[in-house]
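Example 9 (inverse folding). The structure is encoded as follows.
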């Protein structure tokens, strides 16, 4: 049965047309909605009568801008929301879809019958209280004074939504517990790899007498667990394995560079030569070793797309399922533990081949944007139908 295409108003604090922002996630969410769910209109990111304040904050240094912008948007929500509401009244939309920026949804009153949905990989409060947030020192002195107020704002914004779509069970569970969101509105829908589906790869054979290639992908060496990945490589070498490390996305410090480390400090996937290098590095690697502290991590989905197992920590919302896409070791696991896992697979190549296959399978069934788009489209259709039934009951 062909379904009606929904009319979707897309709300974020940054344009999804810029494919670099939010690590590419904003653009992927927008595109997947357009492909699978309906006709998407991007709502303005301007702040109505408070626009001069937004411009002023954008002109501030990045570190301040990052911290002031979302808090100011909560504070000025009544003024900012009026601009969005005027757009919503004009457009005749079925759905208001918020991505990443819960503060952009704050205070927006939707016309009767419109469904509000939201997806993000964290809320500020869940992030702050988690092991990920606690790993970062707080530098913004005003921040802690506003924490309780922020949480109240988040709670109110989440209460406006009919559907909450979280990419990780970590976040879904935390939201349920922290804000008391009822489970019927809360759904786990994993985000996907920010690459086109690579051709099926024959899994790389893992042998003691050949190089074992490790990979790190990320713009922040320490947040991505780069130092531990380097130590894992050195630990394997100390045990007689010819381990090598490829780094994509940043320049490790001198202490983490040697003849066995290859660095591509920045690859732009929109540039064909860079994309070819990116794909080649994933295709030849044996393990992505990335004990990162983060709330999601697209690189894990990209590794799975290439049938490349990931080794990471069970911290935050990393999309790694134990024994399926790799192994998430308990927090505190160190280079010796990661090396041990790899040595275990070196002794059991058949189980390594199975792990590569199940990683690829997980990408095909879950960790891709078409799956996200299809599941989200189903959930949006149901929510729209429920709202329409509800309003016709009330009208009757
Ligand atoms: C450490 C940290 O705070 N991570 C967060 C940060 O992601 P962060 O940007 O650090 O990392 P992600 O893994 O989410 O994304 C990286 C993306 O950039 C791409 N890439 C990377 C390097 C490079 O040279 N070229 C390139 O194209 C990767 O292929 C991937 O698609 O924001 C994301 C949300 O927006 C969150 O989900 C992450 O939890
Ligand atoms: O320091 P602080 O403002 O409380 O918290 C910060 C947030 O405001 C910011 O949006 C995020 O990018 C930082 O990683 C950090 O979490």
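The amino acid assigned to each position is listed next.
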């Amino acid at each position: 049965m062909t379904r009606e295409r929904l009319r979707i108003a897309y709300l974020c604090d940054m344009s999804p047309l810029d494919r670099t922002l939010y690590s590419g996630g904003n653009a992927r969410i927008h595109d997947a909605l357009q492909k699978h769910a309906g006709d998407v209109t991007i709502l303005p990111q301007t702040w109505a009568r408070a626009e001069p304040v937004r411009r002023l904050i954008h002109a501030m240094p990045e570190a301040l801008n990052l911290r002031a912008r979302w808090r100011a948007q909560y504070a000025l929500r009544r003024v900012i929301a009026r601009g969005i509401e005027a757009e919503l009244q004009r457009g005749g939309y079925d759905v208001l879809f918020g991505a990443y920026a819960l503060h952009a949804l704050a205070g927006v009153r939707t016309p009767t019958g419109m469904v509000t949905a939201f997806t993000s990989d964290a809320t500020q409060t869940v992030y702050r209280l988690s092991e990920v947030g606690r790993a970062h020192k707080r530098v913004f002195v005003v921040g802690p004074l506003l924490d309780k107020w922020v949480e109240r704002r988040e709670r109110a914004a989440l209460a406006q939504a009919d559907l909450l779509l979280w990419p990780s069970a970590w976040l879904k569970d935390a939201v349920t517990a922290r804000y008391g969101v009822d489970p019927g509105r809360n759904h786990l829908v994993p985000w996907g790899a920010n690459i086109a589906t690579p051709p099926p790869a024959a899994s790389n054979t893992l042998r003691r007498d050949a190089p074992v290639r490790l990979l790190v992908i990320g713009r922040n060496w320490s947040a991505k667990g780069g130092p531990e990945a380097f130590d894992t490589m050195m630990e394997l070498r100390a045990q007689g394995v010819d381990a090598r490390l490829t780094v994509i996305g940043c320049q490790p410090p001198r202490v983490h560079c040697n003849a066995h480390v290859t660095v591509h400090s920045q690859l732009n996937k929109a540039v064909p030569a860079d994309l070819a290098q990116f794909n080649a590095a994933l295709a030849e690697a044996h393990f992505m070793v990335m004990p990162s502290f983060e709330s999601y991590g697209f690189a894990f989905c990209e590794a799975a797309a290439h049938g490349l197992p990931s080794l990471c920590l069970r911290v935050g919302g990393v999309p790694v399922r134990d024994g399926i896409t790799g192994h998430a070791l308990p927090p505190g696991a160190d280079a010796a533990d990661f090396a041990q896992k790899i040595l275990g697979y070196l002794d059991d190549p058949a189980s390594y081949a199975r792990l590569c296959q199940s990683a690829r399978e997980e990408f095909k069934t879950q960790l891709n944007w078409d799956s996200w788009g299809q599941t989200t489209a189903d959930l949006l259709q149901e929510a729209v139908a429920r709202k329409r039934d509800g309003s016709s009951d009330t009208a009757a």
